[in-house]
Amino acid sequence: MIFTAPHYFKDRHCGYCKDSKIDHYALQSQWNGSKDVAIDEKESILIGTQILQMSCNEYDKLINQGFRRSGKFLYKPDLLKTCCRLYTIRTSSKYLNLSKHHRKIINKFIKLIAPNLKLPAKNTFDFRNLYEAQLESKNFKTIIEPSKFTKEKFELYKKYQIRVHNDDPNDISENSFRRFLCDTPFPQEEVKGNTQQFKDLKIENWNKENKKRIGPTHELYYLDDKLIAISIMDFLPSGISSIYFIWDPDYAYLSLGTLSGLKEIQMCDKLGYDHYYLGYYIQDCEKMKYKKQFGGEILDLANEIYFPFEKVDKFLNNRLFVIGEKGQNIIQELEVENKGEPIDYEDSDFKDKELINIAEDIYGNDEISQDAEECKQILKDKYKIKVSTLTEVPNIIPGSIPIWQIIEWFENENLDLDFEVELFINGQIVDFKLRDLIPEGRGLIIDCIRIFGLELIQDSVIMVS
Ligand SMILES: [Zn+2]
């Protein structure tokens, strides 16, 4: 991966709550009882970086550490402080519990595209018919292709943004569309794929045995040869990640957004992708309600475990959640691997246990923040490492490697000052050892390790200016 030094972004406009939340930081003020922390500021807070190059496999692991990409920008919210708590959510056909609403949408769509398909008798429903109807349809088809710009896509995007999101037409340019939904940080061979891959992605050829496409992908929906929707996705080793969905407002009656989710869950199943990633879920955001209706799992970043929705739903409530066990004694921040390989609840130690939310015990605990501050000082005194100086990343970020763990790595020699990094400076890539750098530079590398994990940084090039 090649990326610019990550940065901690504050004071950002929040597109989800439109800066309407006044309870941000409330968590902290509530916990530590202090009244002097700002409780009326409104901001979305995240760690972000520009990615120059990244493989789909690397991105897959990053998604499973709570990151998402927007074009070439990679980001992860600070779940402790941001106004809206953005949780990674994924599902699969195993979790899909079709509601009456879903069935209605599917039946309406089938009637339109395959009027001759025999629907099951009343009170029965067969999800497979959604697939059958598309196979049989004479007026509906989709084309799956690489994530490339076309005028046709742009025109639909523009119409959608103006009519559905009330965007100012002057703000919508071909370039903004390109940057947001066509450009990717992935290597050319993944972007382009090959002829066989796209042949295999035609619905009539769907098969679990096919070699899977890995790469950024657009699916174009045509009704009577008119483009009516575009689904923007990343096909990744562990699943398909949904990025954005554009639909023609003239076809609002088809509920294409929900329909595409159902179609894509089915596609994952038929093509043998394990998970369908729906991006972030925010419990108190009206626009996100549809995601919950697909069922699925929520990522607990600090434990690196996916919990089924119903196990953790009661803890979300726009609060930070970290699952723990009753009676657990919290003495420090949880150890984090940050390898992007979270386990399933079923395989975790929490299976069948009574779950509680221990976020407050960890992040509302003064001793733990003091401990982080002391550890920061030890890094500085003992190893001449000044963390947070260049990145401005706080001492404590849920789901990042705690500073105490970094010190432990130094003490156990899992990490030392001979650790090698590649930096992109003044137009060229230069190898450095940690010891060659000034304390702020060393701190930057350690911040990157805290944020992205040791493994990823070992194979990365960091751009510094
Ligand atoms: Zn917000």
From TrEMBL:
Coiled coil: none annotated. GO terms for molecular function: arginyl-tRNA--protein transferase activity. Signal peptide: none annotated. It comes from the Eukaryota. The keyword Acyltransferase applies. PANTHER family: ARGININE-TRNA-PROTEIN TRANSFERASE 1, ARGINYL-TRNA--PROTEIN TRANSFERASE 1. Belongs to the R-transferase family. This is arginyltransferase. It comes from Candida verbasci. The lineage of its organism: Eukaryota, Fungi, Dikarya, Ascomycota, Saccharomycotina.
